[in-house]
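hey m, so remember when u said the tokens were messed up on ur end? i reran from scratch. heres the input so u can diff it against urs
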Amino acid sequence: MTELGEYLRACRARVSAEQTGIPSSGHRRVPGLRREELATLAGVSVDYVVRLEQGRAKSASPEILTALARALELDADEQEYLLRCAADSTGLTVKAGSPTPRTQRVGGATRVLLESMPGVPALVLGRRMDILGWNTLGAALITDFGQVPVQHRNHIWLSFLDPEVRALYTDWEKVARECVSYLRMDAGRYPEDPALLRLIGELSVKDADFRQWWSTHRVRAQRSGRKDFLHPLAGEISLDFQVMDVRGTGDQTLLVYTAEPNSRSAQALAFLAGWATTEPHLQQEHLRRGSPAEPGAAPAAPGGKR
């Protein structure tokens, strides 16, 4: 079965007949919409839905896929993922992500931007949510990225498999589920990225929660939200985050955390910023040497991990 077929089946399982206004007709062996019901809602034949799910469809028009997405009540991110899966399975032409370059590097202007925000934790994320760059307060908040092996400098890997980072999140399950959705979105953009496939495989083998949540095919693009931290030095910190595209890179984003002015969290960030100035291994000049990251690159110089 193709990724498109698996995704359609997963989406069908999440939508109830009652939710779409279809009268319930007796006991259902499996949850969600039947193929016949989806076909009726989307205005296509049952046979076509079967062929799509079994990977036997040779073509798929954007109009039909949009109708299926509407019937399945998919949001914008989920509909984009559906179209990308269809492009991979049937050859449908959709607006795709930028071609995957061999290496991911942070530009000079972006480095200057990171350095110009000493009071705001900030990270530069690349494909697969690889951590390509950070400022001193970003390292003080999460971990000393310079001490993390390059192949593990990944936001999702750290959130699942690094005990110290995992313990930072007050509601780890919420954060982790969101991470899985973000990674699934990237998998639709770069279905043949070998590093992404290795990451998914490692997380699936080493973490049962990841394996379970990955199988649900939830997708979501990073935009904004709030995260609650329990920091070992600064205590409870509640921060809003925003994710902004770095123009000209195609696949890099700037993740910035902010606290409400004059709040307990703002005081905690100020404390962390002051503490970081006493820790030479967290300084930006050191971190620069490890920021261009691609699996297989040399790790940064030794220091001390929080």
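this time it looks ok to me. The beta strands are 122-125, 131-134, 224-231, 235-245, 253-258. if urs says something different then somethings off w ur setup not the seq
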